[in-house]
Write a structure and sequence with these properties.
The structure holds 2 protein chains of 2 kinds. By secondary structure, chain A is mainly α. Chain A has one domain. Chain A has 11 helices and 2 strands. In chain A, strands 1-2 form a two-stranded antiparallel ribbon. In chain A, helix 1 runs parallel beside helix 5, helix 5 crosses helix 11 and helix 10 runs antiparallel to helix 11. The longest helix of chain A has about 45 residues. Chain A is elongated and about 60 Å long. In chain A, about 50% of the residues are buried. The model of chain A has no long low-confidence stretch (mean pLDDT about 90). Chain B is an alpha/beta fold. Chain B folds into 2 domains: about 220 residues, P-loop containing nucleotide triphosphate hydrolases (Rossmann fold, 3-Layer(aba) Sandwich), CATH 3.40.50; about 55 residues. In chain B, about 35% of the residues lie in helices and about 30% in strands. In chain B, helix 4 packs across helix 5 and helix 5 runs parallel beside helix 6. Chain B is globular, with a radius of gyration of 22 Å. In chain B, about 50% of the residues are buried. The model of chain B has no long low-confidence stretch (mean pLDDT about 90). The chains are: A mainly alpha, B alpha/beta. At the A-B interface, helix 1 and helix 4 of A face helix 1, helix 2 and helix 3 of B.
Chain lengths: ~260, ~300
């Protein structure tokens, strides 16, 4: 219960923690399926792309065995698929079908806290699931390196940005099937030109430039930096991801306020 | 201090004026029934009070907090029971309550959950997922969730809409308990019987404003007199009876297959046929006369 006449502050940890506790309670009911697919998918991809292609077409990329090249790249795909998509669909369903946000906003929680909590939860989850392909790749022969310990942080920050993107999209679209446009126009191209499966140096000049603006590409480079050695430019890459997350956070809050408050 | 004060509140949705210069004051410790047909502006009024809608004009104050600026602080002291069931169905009963205890910053979450479970009479179902509960249990849980932080003010938005009579009676008992403990309640409803049984005062709302307000007995006395005569028969006869009654200045309203002559005690010269069924005037008569909409 509130105490006295004091005006409640912005971004209160209690409000954010309360919303996240709801996500945790729900996650306890479906974590097995999510975890199973998160572990199985990289194994299947590594068997199909890594071992299959490396046995027939590609042996190594820039001196890195192809299995390890794909395995480290797949961290980025795991992050976008465990952040942008759950944010889009989860937010839409909670708002339009389950009326969950009406219940939460009737409590002393504002839209900024609600969106921040949703993003933080998705970011935390993606930082764990994003590391699974890396662990699987270690099983496929990648040598562990100290730099890999930063991978959860890179995944977390990138996932925050894509969670913000997903929340904003959920606030903008009118119907759930419009996510097909979002996936086809944004998610799939970002995933394909991230450098996860092939080096972007082979792409036409324009696509290479676009890839440099792609947060997923920056994540791929940072993860590979952790596995094979960092460069000074990686600091810029990380700063770019932090900027991406911040901008997406503000857009998500703005769009959700427009959607949730009449 | 009034728990709720609205002065000239206006809320528009494009060309539609949902709340149109609404003045409403709810003193502490009473249950005010906000009675009105669908589209009268009841739910929008509720959303204005929680800060989920921002008024285009007017002054709004809840428990001393100015809205919308201080809406978050106001929400901390009020409980809201929504019209639609928005419980987390895969999560256990106690987790549903614990989540909201945390959102309301309750210091002892465990004790608050136990108290709410007792209120909803769901202590033995605490570890069951919500989708295993019956409809009545879910509504009791929804009510208990809104009360988990022992609020000073409770907003009940159509608390029993769509429920069968047995479940409705269970909820009325819970709401009546709450009222008897002195909690201020604002309850929107379009069920006449609900307002009559639970509300200390009733405000009849239509087209976004309050058109009448008093205790149920006072409203009946002021607008419907003491007796209503219901006349049954073929349409041609009912048209004839209506014409005679209206000729005497009496109000006549449809009542299902019949017509109801309101204020029948004032009728003379055969305006009320001998075969009419005479009964005490009711809040339903008032509601239909004031809003022109048949009550549920």
């Amino acid at each position: 219960m509130s105490e006295g006449r004091t005006r409640l502050r912005r971004l209160e940890p209690a409000a954010i923690g309360g919303v996240m506790s709801r996500e945790v309670a729900n996650f306890r009911t479906y974590w097995r399926g999510t975890t199973f697919s998160s572990v199985l998918e990289p194994i299947v991809y590594l068997l199909a792309f890594g071992l299959g292609l490396s046995a027939t077409l590609v042996d190594e990329v820039n001196g890195v065995p192809y299995v390890q090249f794909v395995g480290t790249g797949m961290v980025a795909t795991a992050v976008i698929f465990s952040s942008a998509l759950p944010a889009m669909f989860g937010t839409f369903v909670k708002h339009r079908f389950q009326n969950t946000y009406d219940a939460i906003l009737a409590a002393p929680v504002d839209v900024e806290e609600l969106v921040s909590a949703e993003m933080l939860w998705i970011g935390a989850r993606a930082s764990v699931y994003g590391c699974v392909p890396l662990l699987v790749t270690i099983g496929f022969g990648l040598d562990p390196a100290w730099g890999m310990l930063l991978t959860p942080l890179f995944c977390f920050v990138t996932a925050l940005g894509f969670a913000g993107f997903g929340v904003a999209m959920a606030a903008i679209v009118a119907k759930i099937d419009q996510f097909n446009y979002v996936t086809a126009l944004f998610v799939t191209p970002l995933f394909l030109v991230s450098g996860a499966f092939f080096p972007i140096e082979g792409l036409p000049q324009g696509f290479q430039l676009l890839a440099q603006l792609n947060p997923l590409h920056q994540l791929v480079e940072l993860v590979r930096g952790g596995a094979f050695g960092y460069d000074a430019v990686d600091l810029l890459r990380f700063a770019g991801l932090v900027g991406f997350a911040f901008v997406m956070w503000r857009i998500a809050v703005n769009r959700m306020e427009a959607r949730l408050i009449d | 201090m009034a728990a709720i004060e609205l002065r000239g509140a206006v809320k528009r949705f494009g060309p539609i004026v949902a709340v149109d210069g609404l003045d409403l004051e709810v003193p502490e410790g009473i249950c005010l029934g906000l009675l009105g047909p669908n589209g009268a502006g009841k739910s929008t009024t509720m959303r204005l009070l929680t800060g989920q809608a921002i008024a285009d004009a007017g002054e709004l104050r809840v428990l001393g907090h100015e809205l919308p600026g201080d809406a978050k602080a106001a929400r901390a002291e009020m409980g809201v029971v929504p019209q639609l069931d928005n419980l987390d169905v895969d999560v256990t009963v106690e987790d549903n309550l614990a989540i909201f205890a945390r959102l309301y910053r309750v210091p002892d979450v465990g004790a608050a959950v136990d108290r709410a479970l007792d209120l909803a009479r769901l202590r033995d179902r605490r570890r069951d997922a919500v989708d295993k509960l019956s409809g009545g249990m879910r509504r009791r849980l929804l009510l208990a969730r809104g009360l988990v932080h022992e609020p000073k003010l409770v907003l009940l938005d159509e608390p029993t809409v769509g429920l069968d009579p047995q479940i409705r009676t269970q909820l009325w008992t819970l709401i009546d308990d709450l009222r008897s403990r002195g909690t201020t309640i604002l309850m929107s409803t379009h069920y006449i019987e609900e307002a009559e049984r639970l509300a200390d005062e009733v405000a009849v709302m239509d087209a976004g404003r309050v058109i009448a307000r008093a205790t149920p007995a006072e409203l009946i006395a002021a607008h419907a007199g003491t007796h209503t005569a219901e006349v049954y028969g073929p349409p041609a006869r009912l048209t004839e009876v209506r014409a005679v009654a209206e000729g005497q200045g009496l109000a006549v309203r449809p009542a299902g297959p019949a017509i109801a002559i309101v204020g029948a005690e004032r009728a003379s010269d055969g305006a009320v046929p001998a075969d009419a069924v005479l009964r005490a005037a009711s809040l339903e008569d008032v509601f239909v006369l004031l809003t022109g909409v048949e009550a549920e």
